[in-house]
Amino acid sequence: MAAAFTFSDRARGIDASGIRKVFDLAAQLEDPINLSIGQPDYPVPDAVKTAIATAVANDRNAYSPSQGVAPLVSRLQADVDKAFGHADRRAFVTSGTSGGLMLALSALVNPGDEVVAFDPYFVMYKHLTTLCGGVCKFVDTYPDFRIDVEKVRAAIGHKTKAILCNSPANPTGAVMTEEEARGLAELSRETGVPLISDEIYELFCYDGPFVSPATFDENCLVVGGYSKTYGMTGLRVGYAHGPKALIEQMIKLQQYTFVCSPQPAQWGALAALDVDMSARVEEYRGKRDLLAGLIGENFPVRGADGAFYMFVPAPWGTGTEFVAACIKEGLLVIPGNVFSEQDTHFRISYAATDDTIRRGAEVLNRLAERGPA
């Protein structure tokens, strides 16, 4: 007799149907034009591969301390001290950036609490908050994906336990200005609501410098990682830095959940810190410009200042309907309602070869000009 499982509210509260439909349709394609992937199309640097292989060969395969191997933690702390100069700021190694976010929300959010985030949002924010028993309260940033601090202020209530921001942003590619970063930091200090800054795409800024809100707020928690910059998404190494009291709680939670980031990958991350990735950033700036130039007449491009995404409005129908038409033509993109409470846009990833970008743009333009079937 099969077991009669009764699933938890937290499991049933997560709806993965939107993106699952895309992947189910994609599975039927033999040679898709893939502009859906949220990871770099280049390989892990050789220095990182060598460091990981050496760690394995030297039997550095056991658990590390929950906060990370000492040389990596020391390097992180030194870099953080140099960048921010906050006496109480501590750093540690997480099991990926998503792991760091999970720890942060677990440390701050009780059932029924609220987390303020920006719509469009990275798909995990809503669901990680649900896992903690909380609720996301979204601040609309359409149509230009800019942050209005007064809208954030209006969204804060007595149940608000965190403000969660992401720059450069997934799915929009928007990069916070210094004014926006300073405004969020000042609001966090004024209200006492902790600010969590997801900076996984920090290096990929094309039209201006990256500004962390932690520059203006010693209590801001920063999460980041190595996955996007170095193409090591499957190796699960991230980091977090923030006030000592919060970091200690996160390390404690990591000890009883993820335990630690995989030790060999941590040695790879240490080696990655000495690899110059500026040529890759310039390469991706070129991909951004290529795609924007190819589709700009049919798709107004907002944001796209960083990361490797464009979040553009569907030229007809809903985002889901337009994406379904794209998939029928062999093109994989992601409907906007995966990242938003609206279904008006869709996400394009230009983390692909230039040829794939050109082929994808041809399909997009043809469908836009053709209209609904």
TrEMBL record:
Matching Pfam families: Aminotran_1_2
EC number: 2.6.1.-
Enzyme class: transferase
Chain ranges of the Aminotransferase class I/classII large domain: 31-363
Membrane is among the record's keywords: no
UniProt cross-references to InterPro entries, sorted A to Z: Aminotransferase_I/II_large, AspAT/PAT-like, NHTrfase_class1_PyrdxlP-BS, PyrdxlP-dep_Trfase, PyrdxlP-dep_Trfase_major
CDD domains: AAT_like
Domain of life: Bacteria
Keyword entries, A-Z: Aminotransferase, Pyridoxal phosphate, Transferase
Annotated protein name in UniProt: Aminotransferase
Annotated source species: Alienimonas californiensis
Top-level taxonomy: Bacteria, Pseudomonadati, Planctomycetota, Planctomycetia, Planctomycetales
